[in-house]
Amino acid sequence: MNTVEQVLNQAEQGFKASMSKLFELLRIPSISTDPAYKADCQKAADWLVAELTAIGFAAKARPTGGHPMIVAHYTPKAATAKTPHVLFYGHYDVQPVDPLELWETKPFEPTLKTDKNGIERIYGRGTADDKGQLMTFVEAARAWIAASGSLPIKATFLIEGEEESGSASLIPFLNANKAELSCDVAFVCDTNMWDEKTPAITTRLRGMVKEEVTVTSPSLDLHSGLFGGAAMNPLRALSKMIAALHDKNGRVTIPEFYKGVSELPKATKKQWAGLKFSEKKFLGAVGLKSNAGEKNHSTIEQIWARPTAEVNGMWGGYQGAGSKTVIPSQAHAKFTFRLVGKQNPKAILKAFQVFAKKQMPKDAVISFSGEGSGSPASEISENNIYIQKSSAALKAEFKKETVLMGSGGSIPIVQSFKTILGMDSVLVGFGLNDDAIHSPNEKYNVSSFQKGIRSWVRIIAALGEK
Amino acid sequence: MNTVEQVLNQAEQGFKASMSKLFELLRIPSISTDPAYKADCQKAADWLVAELTAIGFAAKARPTGGHPMIVAHYTPKAATAKTPHVLFYGHYDVQPVDPLELWETKPFEPTLKTDKNGIERIYGRGTADDKGQLMTFVEAARAWIAASGSLPIKATFLIEGEEESGSASLIPFLNANKAELSCDVAFVCDTNMWDEKTPAITTRLRGMVKEEVTVTSPSLDLHSGLFGGAAMNPLRALSKMIAALHDKNGRVTIPEFYKGVSELPKATKKQWAGLKFSEKKFLGAVGLKSNAGEKNHSTIEQIWARPTAEVNGMWGGYQGAGSKTVIPSQAHAKFTFRLVGKQNPKAILKAFQVFAKKQMPKDAVISFSGEGSGSPASEISENNIYIQKSSAALKAEFKKETVLMGSGGSIPIVQSFKTILGMDSVLVGFGLNDDAIHSPNEKYNVSSFQKGIRSWVRIIAALGEK
Predict the structure, then answer these.
(1) CA-based angle B131:B426:B127, to the nearest 5?
(2) Ranges of CATH 3.40.630.10 domains, chain B
(3) Using the beta-carbon criterion (under 8 Å), do A316 and B317 form an inter-chain contact?
(4) pLDDT at residue A35 above 80?
(5) Mean pLDDT across the stretch B121-127?
(6) Alpha helix (H) ranges present in B34-131?
(7) Strands A374-375, B378-379: pairing kind
(8) Of A439, B22, B28, B415, which alpha carbon lies 20 to 30 A from A140's?
(9) ipTM entry
């Protein structure tokens, strides 16, 4: 029996104990956004520090302006300068539980249920987001040290207590502890598998830049009888600009918008095409029948690997009951642009502003009041060594090819790790789409927890290999 | 000295007394919208009934569900079946006076002021809208009967007390008294001159039809990260439709929209071109520099004689502070269409609905929730006998050609007289653009009052001529 097999055996033998540990953590109502639960957040942090210390980590709950940040280090005795140093990130805080009346079990009394197909699930707040996920790390480390006496890598845990309430302390903490926290790579366990049987690594996260515009035409609201026909209407000007943002093929028309956007690598395109992703099901669930995006790109490509120009809100003139014969002075809209590849947020913003100005008819003046900031997309190459090692380890565990997924949204921590600590993040998680995170009856499948621990055992082994 | 000259002399000799009468009426705070002034409305009605009775009319303040309606009839002894019967319409109620602190004189203490150029003005609520104007009728009738013993026409006064608060009783009253109130023509004295020296008759009032639309795309609000790029955004669909409403020449693109719209008669076009209307001043006052309407039509044509398709309000998605990464389920807009000539409100509404539906991309469903009603434009031909007689009488008084104006808005009474009583309205008034009606420091020039009385003396004479 080789080392990995020994550690996997250890994990299996200890699984019941791992479940107990997880339940202990789940019972602590560490709701970070509600000051009433401040002591519970401290309690959850202390609990994790005690566990990590017991395993062999040098762990501390470090104070911040908000809830404590757990930092725990482990250096194998046999470590050399070449031993990889890996950071594991998770968060011990959870979302509030309201509306409480929709819960079928008590949110902080974790409950095991088995459905008619024999699938076991743990119900409770934080089961999937993120206590269950972060404990897959912890229990894998416990199994490694119990079975082999040591981890084969240098490991640092960074476990946050404010992820669900804005992460106010995170960036200052990373800046203040750069040297201590800069590792070779970060693993973030807060994402999903493709499905119950298919492991996944999220290698693409779209970036985003936002903008808000105001179009002013007349200097005051006008009577549409007195001025209608002669006066420019800012809603008309703004509508014209929004209508011009996309061509008839759904492509964004802003000049230079696609600069830095690459076509998908063939292998990825092929893998995604093979995913049996149901466009009909995905869109049908929200009342849509057809794909409204760029022609010649699949739905999955559009949401994972193509940029967008979206109007998130628009308003102007009279919105009350009945009618008002007004030509409004101003019209407003909020935009977000999802970014991929090497699209530069500042350049996109600038290009949009130039485009929007050009679209304005006479007597329509557009101004911009957005934050002007934004974050580029995060993409890790399929050839990255950590992606390759993790991908192979997951495949070994699941006996199925690992899907290299995209995510339409952004995960801010990934951006912070890159810009502040200079390291890439590998996003491996064991959640499922039906975990109901942030909702009543949040759950985590027992198989997610079990396969998660086993997967980390294998990934840690792969990382430690010469 | 002919009869008209005698009556004009009488009007001049009695002008001081006419001013006193006007001031008496102005002192009654007949604010119709405020129940606290209910007794004052009754008082104003009673005052007018007493005056009209004293002149020789059979006058009564008739009860309604709201404030009383004054009806007063005068039939000359020498009247035959061929003697024209003319209805004069005005209103004795006034707008509220707030903000009171902006008034330089007490609103119900009419005050005469003379400026450095010797121009005399009467300040007070109701001076121009509409007590000053309606008293030009009354005092002309008084002068006629005093000087010649009779009016040369059959006359009916209809003086309303709810014009400033929605005219709730008017249509039921007209319907209930059709035979009594149906005359050969109505004169409405609630409009303006072109300028201090140039008389005007408003012969064109635009009609209007309104509609409200809702565009629904996804069945619920979506996360723009998860669905952005694949899901249709209803704000985009609605913007596209609004942008398509006008072509690059400012012409409305709805098929059949211009059906029933005629080009201006050459004489009218020539007269309007000669008005020295300053587009720069008109648009400049509201912060605009250029005309946004149909090319090849002057600003004055656009607002008086051309139809419009206007969006009066639009909303959808997130409108609060900051940003929200949402693709909204719905987008909304309110529209009004100003109508001219023979445009049919129902046909326009239908044409718009068909157009709007055609503009919708896949997965954008538009629904219509407007009232579906509307009113056509009111236009009297320049060749109408009453227009011609009034126009000539005004020219004789002012020694200047009468301008046949348009008005971009609508005056509901004109529509009611046409549809319920089957008579056209001739809109003659002596207000000026700077009268500040509905505002603090409302005023009426003494010359408006004096020329107004003299003009009615001449118009009544012209109407009485065989």
Answers:
(1) 15
(2) 3-205+378-464
(3) no
(4) yes
(5) 98
(6) 38-55
(7) unpaired
(8) A439
(9) 0.86
What type of residue sits at position A365? V
Name the fold adopted by B3-205+378-464: Aminopeptidase (3.40.630)
Phi, psi angles (nearest 5°) of residue B310? -125, 135
Scanning every residue of chain B, which has its alpha carbon at the shortest distance from the alpha carbon of A250?
Answer: B229
Least-confidence region, from A109-123, A420-434, B361-375: B361-375
Q: Cβ contact (<8 Å) for B287 and A325? A: no
φ, ψ of residue A243 to 5 degrees: the values are -65, -30
Report the top-level CATH class of B207-261+307-375. Answer: alpha beta
Helices marked H in B100-169 = 132-148
Q: What is the pLDDT at residue A397?
A: 98
For A45-51, the CB contacts below 8 A with 24+ separation are: A45/A70, A45/A92, A45/A159, A45/A161, A48/A92, A48/A138, A48/A159, A51/A21, A51/A138
B190 and B90 Cβ atoms separated by less than 8 Å: yes
Q: How far apart are CA A360 and CA A244, in angstroms?
A: 11
Assign B91 to helix, strand or coil: strand
- Retrieve residue B342's tokens: 């023979």
Residues of CATH 3.30.70.360 domain(s) within chain A?
207-261+307-375
Q: Do A190 and A309 meet the contact criterion of CB atoms below 8 Å apart?
A: no
Concatenating the DSSP letter of every residue in A300-344 gives HHHHHHS-EEEEEEEEEE--SSS---EE-SEEEEEEEEEE-TT--
Q: Which of A258, A288, A365 to mutate to test the interface with B (most CBs of B within 10 A)?
A: A288
pLDDT of residue A419: 92
Write down the residue that tokens 């934080």 correspond to.
A126
Q: Taking the domain A3-205+377-464, which CATH number applies?
A: 3.40.630.10
- Rg value, chain A, Cα: 25
Chain B residues closer than 8 Å to A235 by CB: 242, 311, 313-314, 333
Q: Which residue of A has its CA nearest to B282?
A: A227
